[in-house]
Amino acid sequence: FETEVSQLRELGIPVLWHVNQNGKCSNVQIFLHVNNIFQFCCNIETVTSSSFIYVNESKTWSEAQSYCREHYTDLASVRNQAENDQIENMNQNRSVWIGLYRDSWKWSDGSPTSFTYWNNNEPNGDYACAVIHNGRWEDYDCDTTLYFVCEIGEL
Ligand SMILES: [Ca+2]
Q1: pTM of the entire structure?
Q2: Which residue has the higher pLDDT, 5 or 56?
Q3: Which keywords accompany this UniProt record (predicted)?
């Protein structure tokens, strides 16, 4: 499998490597070809079993991070399309904070950033925090108060 990935990369084909919550990819279970990007998922049960909680209280990104760390695990990390869809289905077309911040862009809980889902022309500001809006990511002023999504359970 690693050979296939390196062959694709040598051909200049972008490859997203979805890893499980431990940052390890042991057995490949799904192969997708979406938007001309080859996407590999592994340990899919682990990936999709991570759960999120939607918090409908307006807070700045830092306040939201503190809240999530105090009550749950951390602000949400989005590791793959399934998790992105899960959050999008919760947030009713609002912009909501996720755990992504820079510099450079990284997850609040230290997860790898192999999966990204920026909206067209984003990130486009000097902003250091990220929201999900209509299923896509956008950079956003960290001091804005927004609803947010926390991650539940172990990292
Ligand atoms: Ca932006």
Answers
A1: 0.61
A2: 56
A3: Disulfide bond
